[in-house]
Write a structure and sequence with these properties.
By secondary structure, the protein is mostly helical. Helix content is about 85%, strand content about 0%.
């Protein structure tokens, strides 16, 4: 893979996946600084449940769509099956939410303020459903520009609307924020309909539905365990420490969104690429690209990890203007993910692209098996810092397992990754040469 050839697509992919990060940074200045800690803690819990559900529907119906559209000639039946299963899944989750009595939330120690916001979850599902499907439809075709504009409506529109409400003095609660989110998700879905409506025709095929379901059930099951791991930390902090502790932990964990961003960028390319190359039997390309992805993403994340490890208090002070400084230890602990994330993201993407979804499921089971007792043991003793230790340690252990399993089919190695520094040097030389040779005004 010639690196320079993919710079344009890479730029669009980073821009696409940076949109949630832009939204998150804007939320720090517009939301976290404006809402009382209890309101923000309640919103953080609702947002966690929403993201949990979206991660599950993505695994169950949408990642299989990406995989099969990338590797098959007939795509309409798989696109139709993915849309149908997405709608059924979101309707099912909505039914469960309406059926659960208030006593259940009291039993699991969820504060009443957060429970009163739960009716916004079905509205968010309805508003964002088609947007999610459209992005999955565009990804295997590498239609990154269209994906960017769809996501920009939600991720740029939300903080813009919040800023407007703040200027009017009309933004005072988590409920105000959720109303804005529903509206912007709806506008994003309408944009997606205009962009993607001609890319497929409704072609209901029972075989395609069953194929998506059989593949998706393993990705879904693995994502259930992974989402339990990655989202349950906020629930544990809330349960043992209250809403203020949850707000502190969530504010500190915002740095992890940078790692998530890179992991999602890698996924945009790695899943369809590995699907095509695996079907073609091209193991050499699979190894080469995996090593380059790990090497380049590690270089990008190391400066972030250094800041988190060395000056966490200063970083929090800059972001939150003196609030949530108690989260510095959480930031420092989570800095280890700068090294872990590239290996984990490439391995997980390759599992999906090469069809090894059952293996991915058992890795997720291992992840929760390691994390859950650590959450339960360390959170009540060490507070949010204990939760962060459990989160980071569990990720590190399972990443080692992922790489060892992947090496059976794709001989990925530390030596191979380090050897990709030559590609970085060559790329820098090419850029320098082009800049020096470019006519004045074109550099």
């Amino acid at each position: 893979m010639k690196l320079a050839r993919h710079l344009s697509k890479g730029a669009w992919a980073f821009a696409l996946k940076a949109l949630p990060a832009v939204n998150g940074v804007a939320s720090i200045f517009l939301v976290v600084r404006s809402l009382p800690a209890e309101e923000y803690g309640a919103f953080a819990l609702v947002q966690t449940l929403y993201l949990f559900t979206i991660a599950l529907v993505n695994a169950f119906a949408l990642l299989p769509v990406v995989r099969f559209i990338a590797g098959r000639e007939r795509t309409d039946p798989y696109a139709t099956a993915g849309l149908l299963l997405t709608l059924c899944f979101l309707l099912g989750v909505t039914g469960v939410l309406w059926a659960l009595p208030a006593s259940f939330w009291h039993l699991v120690n969820i504060p009443p303020l957060a429970v009163r916001l739960f009716p916004y979850l079905p509205a968010l599902f309805a508003a964002s459903g088609y947007r999610l499907f459209a992005v999955a439809l565009l990804q295997p075709r590498y239609r990154l520009r269209e994906m960017f504009f769809i996501e920009a409506v939600a991720n740029v529109g939300t903080p813009a609307a919040v800023g407007f409400l703040l200027a009017l003095g009309s933004f005072t609660s988590a409920e105000d924020l959720l109303r804005v989110m529903v509206l912007m998700q709806l506008l994003s879905s309408l944009t997606a309909m205009g962009v993607s409506g001609r890319l497929f025709q409704w072609t209901l095929d029972r075989g395609a539905v069953l194929e998506i379901f059989r593949f998706g059930k393993y990705v879904f099951s693995g994502s259930v365990f992974y989402s339990v791991f990655s989202q349950l930390d906020v629930v544990f902090v809330t349960s043992f420490g209250g809403l203020v502790a949850a707000a502190t932990y969530s504010a500190a964990k915002v740095f992890v969104r940078i790692f998530d961003l890179l992991g999602q960028v890698l996924q945009v390319f790695a899943i369809p690429f590995s699907s095509r190359k695996w079907e073609a039997g091209d193991r050499t390309s699979l190894q080469t690209v995996a090593e380059k992805l790990v090497a380049f993403s590690t270089i990008l994340l190391l400066p972030v990890g250094a800041i988190m490890a060395l000056i966490p208090s200063e970083a929090l002070l800059l972001l939150y203007n003196g609030k949530y400084l108690d989260g510095a230890i959480v930031v420092r602990v989570l800095s280890i993910l700068a090294i872990v994330t590239p290996w984990n993201a490439v391995g997980a993407s390759y599992f999906i692209g090469t069809g090894k979804v059952k293996t991915g499921f058992w890795v997720s089971v291992l992840l929760v098996s390691v994390a859950l007792p650590l959450y339960w043991t360390l959170t009540p003793r060490l507070g949010p810092a204990g939760t962060a230790i459990a989160y980071a340690f569990s990720q590190a252990v399972t990443t080692v397992v992922v790489v060892l399993i992947l090496r059976r089919s794709v001989p990925l190695s530390i030596r191979g990754v380090l050897g990709r520094w030559r590609d970085i040097r060559q790329l820098l030389r090419d850029w320098t040469t082009r800049l020096l040779q470019a006519p004045p005004g074109e550099s």
